[in-house]
Amino acid sequence: MINMTEKTFTLAQLAQYDGQNGQPAYVAVDGVVYDVTNSPAWPNGRHHGNQAGQDVTKALHEDSPHGAKKLALLPVVGKLV
């Protein structure tokens, strides 16, 4: 899927999307930013010790039992720069 209006996020900008106080919940994995706001696995922007608004690449590749396959179910909102 090609998104002509793809947003770019710095780590500081991504941190604003932590799922707290009504904010959307975004996470970055391998440079791609995903929206986990409506994912039941990410209530209040939290998932198994990980907080939205961060690059969770290391946790996904080292600690996740499902690896990257669940990412295909999430909306892509941009990329991490």
TrEMBL record:
SMART domains cross-referenced by the UniProt entry: Cyt-b5
Gene3D superfamilies assigned to the protein according to its UniProt record, in alphabetical order: Cytochrome b5-like heme/steroid binding domain (3.10.120.10)
Residues in Cytochrome b5 heme-binding domain copies: 9-81
Coiled-coil residue spans: none
Entry-linked InterPro entries: Cyt_B5-like_heme/steroid-bd, Cyt_B5-like_heme/steroid_sf
Name under which the protein is recorded: Cytochrome b5 heme-binding domain-containing protein
